[in-house]
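Notebook, bench 3.
Goal today: get a predicted structure for CCHC-type domain-containing protein from Trichocladium antarcticum so we can plan the truncation constructs. The sequence was checked against the plasmid map this morning, with no discrepancies at the termini. Length recorded as 212 residues. Pasting the sequence as submitted so the record is complete.
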Amino acid sequence: MSSEEAWDLIKRAVKERDIDDVKEAIQIYVKSAPETTYRELESAFRAQDIPLWLIAIEKECLSVTLTNMDLQGHLHKKYTVTYRFQWNPPRPRERRLWPKDVDENLERLKDAGEVVDGGLPKCSNCNEVGHISKSCTQEKMESGTIREVKCYNCEQVGHRVRDCKLLTTCVFCSRLTRIAGPIPREDRFACNNCGFVLIPHHMCIEIQRLTI
């Protein structure tokens, strides 16, 4: 497939607001133009007014066994590329991670990539990377040791994401809702109306009222 055809696939996926199709189309495009960078893609999207933003953020809770890889396969990039259908951060807690403007975002994209497995094992005994517990030279941890449980939605200790009771705002109707179960990832579950929201499309009260 030519790069022009692949670019049309990207625009079609953006129009349909399908993140998975967008990512697949970008990979197809990169195969036809292997030197393309995230920064060049973002610049092209802005120049052509394509409503897709590649936002580079520095994730604070990225597992030590994971890393960021750019489109050319280079690992250990500082920032994580996220795909968005709007510029503004969807969650209040993401604002401090957000680039202040387009120029800063483009600068970050020079050292950004998507999350991949770093290929190194993590020891369940000492929590260090590079070996497994069977080969660990440190004193064995007692099986009864209690490890801290932390929710990465509200950043509180004592429960997991699936049990989080945090009220979340729907970007479409601005109502608060409590989601049962884990909050959908923005890059894998997007509302068909606004592209990506904090609640599934079918749970949006405003949408339900408009469709009655």
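The helical segments are 3-15, 19-32, 38-47, 102-109, 205-211. Residues 161-211 form one domain.
Flagging this for group meeting.
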